[in-house]
């Protein structure tokens, strides 16, 4: 009901704690991003979230430029070096890039390579496996704006379109939330 956040597929929003919960796994809430026309909107897919590598010639107004200036990530994400040496994007702001070059953790957590998870004191969350994007294709929204492939265009209360980071998602009638395909919205 905060009109701002969403969670990956299979997670439940806990607005009071500011988290997404699936069993014992807890993630920070994701912030919805409005679709832009132009530049194209970038949002993050559900877990595991592929990295979106951008070339320097397609610079977004709201972006994080990676070291070396040859690649960039969407605003609110973190540049992390991949095993290949190239940069990719971790879907967390100020994320911790794991030394294996494959994973990342939310800010404040540490990578536990042996256990394959992120730790912060007694809290443990599943880490995100980074996958270098191949070709980035887009879903065109009804108003001509676009969202990344694997996401769904949902109309916002303003009449513009936003990107739900879930494929073939159900757009809730409140024009703020979305649910995984096959689920019913309950925004009460």
UniProtKB/TrEMBL annotation:
Organism (species): Pseudosuccinea columella
Name of this protein: Granulin-like protein
Organism superkingdom: Eukaryota
Major location category of this protein: secreted
Disulfide bond found in the keyword field: yes
Gene Ontology CC terms, in alphabetical order: extracellular region
Pfam families xrefs: Granulin
InterPro entries from the UniProt entry: Granulin, Granulin_fam, Granulin_sf
Gene3D superfamilies assigned to the protein according to its UniProt record, in alphabetical order: Granulin
Keywords, ordered alphabetically: Disulfide bond, Secreted
Sequence ranges assigned to domain Granulins in this UniProt record: 98-111, 172-185
